[in-house]
Specification:
It contains 11 helices and 8 strands. The chain is of the alpha/beta class. The protein folds into 3 domains: about 170 residues, NAD(P)-binding Rossmann-like Domain (Rossmann fold), CATH 3.40.50; about 60 residues, N-(1-d-carboxylethyl)-l-norvaline Dehydrogenase, domain 2 (Orthogonal Bundle), CATH 1.10.1040.10; about 35 residues, no CATH class. Strands 3-2-1-4-5-6-7-8 form an 8-stranded mixed β-sheet, with helices on both faces. α3 links the parallel β4 and β5.
Length: about 325
Amino acid sequence: MTEPAADPTPAPGHAAIIGFGLMGCDIAAIFLAGGWRVTAVEPDRAAWPARLDRVSASIAQLGGQPARVEALDLVASLADVGFGDADVVVEAVPERLDLKRAVFAELDRLVPPAVPIASNASGFRITDITEGCATRERMANLHFFLPAHLVPGVEVVQGEYTDRAACDRLAEIMAGLGRKVIRVARDVPGFLANRIQHALMREAFAVIDSGLASAEDVDNAVRYAFGFRYLAAGPIMQKELAGLETQLAAARTIYPSLATNAEPSPTLARLVEEGKLGPKTGQGFWTWTEESAAKERARYERALLAAAKVLREEG
């Protein structure tokens, strides 16, 4: 699909962010670093200081002035937002369909009709989230990837009832904020990037389930072998550069033995059942302390910043 021409420096406006966890904070940082004013909804007032610290740190990582956090207005409810001068609304509440539907039902009533409303849902279709909304033609999915301020890509997904003009406007706003817009023409579970990512994850967990390799070796195979090339070229371009005939031959040999299970990995299900969720519980495939988790997250973010610098330098 041809991406619409976008003004690279649109006039800053007013963004309303509904939900202010990690994702909401980093989405707010993107807008603030781009000169926008932001109103964010966070019902838990006790969480406000930590959230503001997160936003300031994220703005700094984007190369902006942490003082831009002063253009952020935190409120406790949708009724406190004042949507009259909003230019865009982004929902980033927890990934529960009932909660998102309730929020969109309110936004349908409160937000002026011309303002695009987007959901950052990572799996739920915007068509399902907006069921029953009277103005669902201006509602689309705007899917960021955690950490949202460091990962440049953002998917703009057109729902079954979404007007293309709403997606065009969201794409224009995101391009103006320096994001790499990925247009998705149909509203399918997982959109585009997560469908590709989960195909990889199904095989990665199948490898562990079968005893072919450890979690560490799986990660090393991706980071230091084929995945290392993806910063330089996406999978289709990389195969084109290598010669499509080699991909065809490899596919005929390998595809018949790839995982095709419709249910998640037994190893993954067991770990979750045992409460071994990763750093948040201290155990997953690896054992975690607060210190080791903080160190690994810092290393991860440094690597993302370095990768973003490479992409910026190539334009």
